[in-house]
Amino acid sequence: MKLSELKAGDRAEVTSVGSETAVRRRLMDMGLIRGTELEVLRFAPLGDPIEIGYKGLHLTMRLKEAEGITVVKLPEQKHPQETTGSSLPGKRFFRRG
Amino acid sequence: MATGKEIRVALAGNPNAGKSSLFNVLTGSHQRVGNFPGVTIEKHEGYIDYHGARITVVDLPGTYSLTPYSPEEIVTRRYIIDEKPDVVVNVVEGTNLERNLLLTSQLMEMEVELLVALNMFDEVEEKGISIDFNQLEKLLGCHIVPTSARKQQGIDALLDHIVSISDGSIEISKNKMTFSPVVESSVEKIAGLLRHERELDSSNHRWMAVKLLENDREVYSQVRQYPIWVKVELALQEAITECDRLHDTDPEALITEDRYAFVRGAMQECVRQPKASRATVSDYIDMVVLNRVLGLPVFFVVVWAIFQLTFTLGAPLMDGLDFVFSLISRSLRPVLPNAVLRSILVDGVIGGVGSVLVFLPNIVLLFIGLSFLEASGYMARAAFVIDKVMHRFGLHGKSFIPMVTGFGCSIPAMMATRTLKSRSDRLATLMTIPFMSCGAKLPVYVLLTGAFFPPAMAANVMFGIYFLGIAVGLWTAWMLKSTVLKSDSEPFVMELPPYRWPTLASVIFQARMKAVMYLKKAGTLILVAVIAIWAASNFPHSRELDAELASETARIENTVSNPDLKKGELEKLSSRVQAEQLEYSLTGRSGKLIEPLIRPLGFDWRIGISLVTGVVAKEVVVSTLGTIFSIGSTDQGSGGLSSILRNSPGFSRATALSLMVFVLLYIPCLASLGVMKKEVGSWRPVLIYTGYVLAIAWIASFITYRIALLTL
Prior knowledge:
By secondary structure, chain A is α+β, with helices and mostly antiparallel strands.
């Protein structure tokens, strides 16, 4: 599925970054490569852009950019040591509208 | 150590790695700001004298990588390749090593003397992260010095290393990053091919080969000119096929993955960090600041606070400056005997300097606020919160703050567009700002609404004017972004850095830099323009009017005995002669010249003159109207101008509305055109823009005037 289709609080693993050339390169340079485990932290108050967390980094992008990223949704988390933000209290309150 | 030795150092690193703070600590007050050749990216250069060596430091723009996709990265790359600094100091954020080392891995390929400054080391220690420096140095093939720019620690050690590396007294065996076998064999092959091309102006064939595999358009166009290209292209094709077959991806992605694998390997070997799954302070702040419900209100409060800081706090300072200048003028006037000299010095030069300096408090205050927002980390969040709205008009989330600032004054607002990284976003925002009705236009609206509308209606008219400005501004942005600025729009991929307290020194530094830049670059231009307009309003000078003034003055002196009456008569005379002199001058003639053009908008030549002088600054429209319409008028006392205008034949409500619309939309003041030229880099777009605003203003005023004539 696409990164843009996830909900706040979802965790997923990147399977491919297929956006347009410059965007794709930028995303990869920011560490978003195949195999990266990320968590959707929130959407902006108006529903776009999206904020994700991985490897101690908080990255935001427009949904249009997030559409180019294919992910596999991970089951509810079992290993609390992975990724930042994964144990953010109250994160379930941030839901996409 | 030999004295007079020069060492050239470049600082490279990720945004938010503390590069600028380190630069400030290193160079102190010995700095200057310029631009990198051909682009409007600021180049900060400074020096420090250390143990007899002069170390010049260039602060390269913050980058995550060295691709050819962003001007910052191109500038960084070209500087390192072309200028060949003696030492490249790679500033890395110690608390975020994994991503920061990606750039390090790219710098390793560039055959430079690399030195890593592991910055924010105080935070690293606080977080209980331990680093095996020896092993990491071995893996990266360069020395690493822990530093903390904030606490000014490790600076001497860094300087010692810079000196020792440049004179070769310490050495370290370089390490080479090895890619996956399939990439590595292609790199070897292509580098071998390039080595045979004797004409090729580069010694770093391995770097070029890697870049070619990464689809780098700059290196592509460089190599394509040579006959060897035919063979290189074949090798590239082969690499693409092989990568797809073995790794199910393309060389570019595979190289990045290899780099991360290298970095991760180094991290696992050398860095121990406690399992940090606790939410940080930043996370808690974001839960409020980026909250679905609270996010927008917080954003608007911050914007409001910045606006208040700049303009409410700035107003008394502005008035103070104004007072000082009028004091100087008043004390100079009686000292200077020659009327022409007096006018040149007092009205021209001092008036001109005053009109430049008067913006300074606003600029300094705004940039104290903005650099606080930027350094604290909120600026990125503000962009995140409002981006959806701005994007609808083709703008970026970061465009919002400069636009709002435009309601106060266009000058600092235009300078604030520097926070936008992409040129096309910046240009679009820049061209939107003059439509945000600035503080100087307010007196015009107050005068005209007060004169022609009952108080209950005045507020609505005013609101309508502001709204029209916003609408035209956003429309302009949208139109620009969907036509001429369509290309190279910056993708919105932005990091939200952890919140940090900005250091006072860096905030003050930023504000000082902006002030100096404004005074030096825009200030001189504004000064020249203001003096030119002054000259046009004073020359040619009618001697007949001078003679008439003299004879009439003598007549009044002799015939009127009552001192109050005499004073009144003399004042009326001098204002009438002043108005007639203005009419006689170049400015006055141009007012008459353009009358046929502005006739359809309901304006006569008198309004034309006000519009011409109003180019200097919009509030001048009011004072010129005052001068010209007072001719032959008997109205006296406060509120005089309102009633004069109201009773002028040909000045109707429709004229007032049309004039307000025109003042809102037509040429932004000279000062802002000067700043715009500075930000855009050349006159051509500024002139085209001026033509555009004139056309828009004419059309909008025409429509307003015709509708008003029919309905009012």
